Every structure is written in structure tokens, then in C-alpha cells.
Amino acid sequence: MAVLIKGKSIQCAQKSRDHYMQGKENDRITVREVLGFATKDANEALEMVELSAKGTRCKKPLYSVKLNPEPDRLWTLQELRQAVEMLEANLGLTGHPRVVVEHKKHGRVHYHILWSRFHPDGGPAKNMGNDYAAHQKTQREIERAFKLRPMMARGRDFKQSEVEWAKRYGFDIFALRKEITADFNNVRSGLAFIAALKTKGVVLCRGDKSQFVIILPWGQHKALSSMIYGRPPKAVLRRALADIDINKLPTVAEGKAQVKATLPKIKRKTHRRAHIYIRSRSTHAASRQPSGFPATSRRPETATGALPKNLALLAGTPKETEAPKQILAPIRPDRKSWPYAAIIDWEAWGHEFPAQFFTVWPELAPIGFVPMAEPPL
């Protein structure tokens, strides 16, 4: 592989900025260039891009590209600038402000280039559709300019989702591919190859399109040729594994069942939606509910008749003189009309402590909200 280029339009939120500027998985982060901005600080430059998109309908004002060169071929600053300018011209982003960041991860150097989709002279955001052809054209130009080994059509790296899938179960898909390649090159019989795969937790199955399919130790199925360097064709696989009766091999579904029976259960991360439920004090508030929620919805109660803790914190203690009929209205924060500082507070801590948040920001509180007696510290 000479150089790998991947890109997409992204949001300019704090989480994205932290990934590029404060990534915990990287050994080193170096800002190589900040061009076209009124500041030389990369964080301030990315904040400017976010502010420039506030008054528009553009939700993803940044275009991010990852340049991944060969590990044994380090680029100089002049070569890096030349490669970035080639890609910039092919993408049609000439003159757009950009930030170039260098990451060193697991001893390997790669680069992130972040362009603002807005031109300094004004106009709408640049449409970044059909960028794959520009990536491939730039890749060939870099190979010729730097005299690199051209990337072959076969034997490319795996998708990021496949790498993360294996990583969740403690496996390295690249190391596994090397081991399977070594076993195939040293194979003496098909049965011996199956035994070698079993020691690694891999199951050989029969497929529909691909004659031989393997189930990897984390439950993913792939064609056997895709896990061998050089991607040997079907004729080579048949000749090397001629002593195997294909009809006796398990199907893909049966192989997955065998592997999944041995996999540990992993608790996946769930993203909690930040909805606020408040207790209205009048029937007028029921008419202000968002569409999709019936005005006669009853409040959720526990077996004792009391409100759950997450609702009681926001609603406060009801008085004895109140009417027994209470209405809960789900409220979604209107971030378009909120001040920028309030949005930062909401994302940092407000979505977990809504009562404290609306006590600090009473002008944003929904109708029927009862402020806290003592403001939070």
C-alpha cells in the first residue's frame, strides 16, 4: 500500500475537535499547518468554522480527510504540503481554509486534513458528493510524484467497522490475516489446514458465491481468499484443498452458531436521548405539547403511586392542594434559539441535571417548571 485516502463531511462539535486535537489513543499529536484563518491556533480555527455555519442550514461544515502513508516511508513537510495541495485541487477546495494534524498511533504516522466547506469570499458550502474518484486520482498522482509502490486493486485494508468489531473481542484482524496466510502457504493437506484454523478459533464453511468461507473468532464471515495475502483465485484454493469434501463442510449459518456459542457477552454502549419531562400545572400547557404526544397522557407512577426518581427531581414535591390530574409533557431543547454558552452547559452537564440547568438558565425553562429553592453552586 502506497497511501490510503479516506474522507467525509463531518460536524464541528466539541467531540469531533477532541478526536483530532486530544485523541487518547494516539501516541503523539502535532499540528502541522493552520492556513486561511485569522488565528494560528487549531482549536480556535475549528471553532470559527462552527460559528460560520450557525446562520446556515449546513450541519456538517467540515470536510475531513485521512492520509495514511506506508509505515516504512515517512513524508517530509514539503511532501506533505505537496500531497495536500494535490488533493485540495482535485476536490475543488482550493482557497478554502484548512488545518493539517499529524497523529502517531501504535508507532505509525497518519495525517488528518480538515477543510472548511465555506469559501472566505462567501457563498454556500461546497458540495462534497462523489469524492471517491478524487481520492483515487490523487492517490495515483502521489504514487507517481513520490515514486511509491502503487496500490493493487486487491489486498486492501479492512473497513474500520471490521477492525473495531475484532477489537471489541480482543482480536487483531491484521495479525490474524498474517497467521492464516502462513498456514495456507505451508499447507500440506486440506484437513491439516482445517485443524490449523480451529486452533485460532476459525471455522471453515461452504459458501454460495465463494466456495470457501471462514467464520472469524468474533462471529464475522469472510471469503477465505480475502484473509490471504494476494487473494488467491478459486482454482488455487480448490487445488490446495482438494482433499476436502465441500458437501461435508458446515454452512455459514451453522458455522456462526458454533462460534457465537463460545463468544463472551459484551455490553454495548447505549446513547441516551436527552429528553426532559416536566409536570404541567394547567391544562393550557397540554395544548403546547409537541405533535405525536396525546394531551391526555397520564404521568407514569410506581407501585406506591409516587413519581419515579428521574421525574420527581425535576417536578419537585407536589402540594396536597394540587389537583390530582397531572400532565407530563416531553420537551426537546431548541438549540437554534439557545445562546452558545447554554448549549455548552447543556452538553457538558445540563442533560444529566435538568433541574439545576434550568435554574441557572431560567429564561430557557419550559412552561410549568418549578425552579430549585437554592441555586446550584
Give the end-to-end Cα distance, rounded to a whole number of Å. Answer: 55 Å
**Strand order of the biggest β-sheet:** 1-3-5-4-2
Give the biggest sheet: 5 strands, antiparallel
Q: Mean of residue pLDDT?
A: 79
Helix content: 25-40%
User: Which structural class should the secondary elements be placed in?
Assistant: alpha+beta
What order do the SSEs take from the amino end to the carboxyl end, as H and E? Answer: EHEHEHEEHHHHEEEHHEHEHH
Anisotropy-based shape: globular
Overall number of structural domains: 3
Indicate the CATH class of the largest domain.
Alpha Beta
- The fraction of residues assigned to DSSP E strands is 15-25%
Please give the count of helices: 12
Q: Write the CATH architecture name of the largest domain.
A: 2-Layer Sandwich
Please state the CA-atom Rg, rounded to the nearest Å. Answer: 28 Å
Q: How many DSSP E strands?
A: 10
Low-confidence stretches: 271-330
Fold and architecture overview:
- This protein has helices at 14-21, 42-52, 77-91, 132-146, 160-168, 173-185, 190-199, 234-240, 252-260, 309-315, 340-350, 354-360; strands at 3-10, 28-35, 62-69, 98-105, 108-116, 203-206, 212-215, 221-223, 276-280, 327-331.
- 22% of the residues are buried.
- Helix content is 32%, strand content 16%.
- It is built from twelve helices and ten strands.
- With 377 residues, it is of the alpha+beta class.
- Residues 271-330 have low confidence and may be disordered.
- Strand 6 and strand 7 form a beta hairpin.
- The protein has a five-stranded antiparallel β-sheet with strand order 1-3-5-4-2, with helices on both faces.
- The protein has three domains: 3-146, BirA Bifunctional Protein, domain 2 (2-Layer Sandwich), CATH 3.30.930; 160-260, no CATH class; 276-364, no CATH class.
- Helix 3 (77-91) packs antiparallel against helix 4 and helix 11 (340-350) runs antiparallel to helix 12 (354-360).
